[in-house]
Amino acid sequence: MKQETSLLPNWRSNMYLFLSGQFFSGVTSMVVQYAIIWYLTKQTGSATILSFATLLGMLPMVLLSPLIGPFVDRTNKKILLIVPDIVAAVVAIILATVGIISSDFPLWLIFVSLLVRSIAQTFQMPTIQSIVPTMVPESEITKINGQLGMVQSANMIIAPALGALLYSIVPISYLILLDVLGAIVGVTIIIFVKIPEHLIFDEKIRIFEDVKFGLDKLRSNKGLWRITIMGSVFTLLFMPAGSMYPLMTISYFHGTVAQAGIIEVVFSVGMLAGGTIIGLFGNWKDRMKPILWSIFVMAAAFIPSGFLPGNFKGFIWFAILNAIAGMSVPFFNTLLMAMIQQSYPPEILGRVLGILNSLMSISGPVGLIFAGPLADKIGVNMLFVIAGIGALLCGAYILFTPLARNFDRDLQKKLSEE
């Protein structure tokens, strides 16, 4: 599991080249993603359509992640990063061409494009997660994960603002082609990144045996297993609110697309601040403590959001609370990922991450099924109260479950003994 800096010459410049590629391809992809969601919001104004679009974005992660894990462990990592970008670019060209010819998009084609984009991401996410510990010294894993989180947060800051600007001045049919530019830049950079590979490419892939192997490895780590289950429960309770951010701004606060973009930017600025703290000061002895704090901070931000007045003053407070919530997000995601990467050897990490990503996401579609009807029945604002209560309950479970609460201390002890 351990890696030595001497085995990774120029690892820092190599990693920063990789992060720059993730930034360029990520920001263009997200601009297009926001444009499509805003287009759906403005054209339909339907909570059900919005939740269905989000559902399509999540299903591949749930259904395909366990099956993709074995390929991540046994396939050239560059291929797994490059091919999905090319596929997403081809889909963008098809969608843009239809929009230019007919001056409108059929809903079914938008849904297909969202599904394909999500499948591409489902291949890339565990690949990125599994190669990070092979590219950096073990002592730097937490900080580098924080810096990767900073890149993703920077994308989420720039993309909504740039997307709102371009959405207002560029026809969406042409805006979608930005995905092609991002793919070209991202693929070009990845070609020059050095990614260590493990020599198990010739092993035969046995899908069901490999899925069972990954599940058994995850379940045998009892503390991590309990944290994973709580992550799944929180996803179930948060997803209805998470899919309704544009509708919350436009319908509840009577805002505009630009204001919806502002909320996304504010949330992402908070995430960038949290990621920066981890990237600079990430070597905590017990990483479960900041994770627990982040969960309770998230609850403290979401619950009041549901009781704000539906006016401009309420919108301002919503923005402030979302900045606080955004700051807490990287602590859970980034620190947990660093602990997982240190818990398993790189050659089996893809299979474990495939199972873990699926379990963390599996309850999301269930929450989304109820998102539209719930928003129509109790109000979109009350979904944020449900999300906050969910965070509170999940945090309490981890706090009062020793195997989960002491997970990192036990892991650090095991690593020091090795």
Automatic annotation (TrEMBL):
<protein>
    <submittedName>
        <fullName>MFS transporter</fullName>
    </submittedName>
</protein>
<feature type="transmembrane region" description="Helical">
    <location>
        <begin position="79"/>
        <end position="101"/>
    </location>
</feature>
<dbReference type="InterPro" id="IPR020846">
    <property type="entry name" value="MFS_dom"/>
</dbReference>
<keyword id="KW-1133">Transmembrane helix</keyword>
<keyword id="KW-0813">Transport</keyword>
<feature type="transmembrane region" description="Helical">
    <location>
        <begin position="291"/>
        <end position="309"/>
    </location>
</feature>
<feature type="transmembrane region" description="Helical">
    <location>
        <begin position="46"/>
        <end position="67"/>
    </location>
</feature>
<keyword id="KW-0472">Membrane</keyword>
<dbReference type="InterPro" id="IPR036259">
    <property type="entry name" value="MFS_trans_sf"/>
</dbReference>
<dbReference type="InterPro" id="IPR011701">
    <property type="entry name" value="MFS"/>
</dbReference>
<feature type="transmembrane region" description="Helical">
    <location>
        <begin position="378"/>
        <end position="400"/>
    </location>
</feature>
<feature type="domain" description="Major facilitator superfamily (MFS) profile">
    <location>
        <begin position="174"/>
        <end position="418"/>
    </location>
</feature>
<feature type="transmembrane region" description="Helical">
    <location>
        <begin position="148"/>
        <end position="169"/>
    </location>
</feature>
<feature type="transmembrane region" description="Helical">
    <location>
        <begin position="348"/>
        <end position="372"/>
    </location>
</feature>
<dbReference type="Pfam" id="PF07690">
    <property type="entry name" value="MFS_1"/>
</dbReference>
<keyword id="KW-1003">Cell membrane</keyword>
<keyword id="KW-0812">Transmembrane</keyword>
<feature type="transmembrane region" description="Helical">
    <location>
        <begin position="315"/>
        <end position="336"/>
    </location>
</feature>
<feature type="transmembrane region" description="Helical">
    <location>
        <begin position="227"/>
        <end position="248"/>
    </location>
</feature>
<feature type="transmembrane region" description="Helical">
    <location>
        <begin position="16"/>
        <end position="40"/>
    </location>
</feature>
<feature type="transmembrane region" description="Helical">
    <location>
        <begin position="260"/>
        <end position="284"/>
    </location>
</feature>
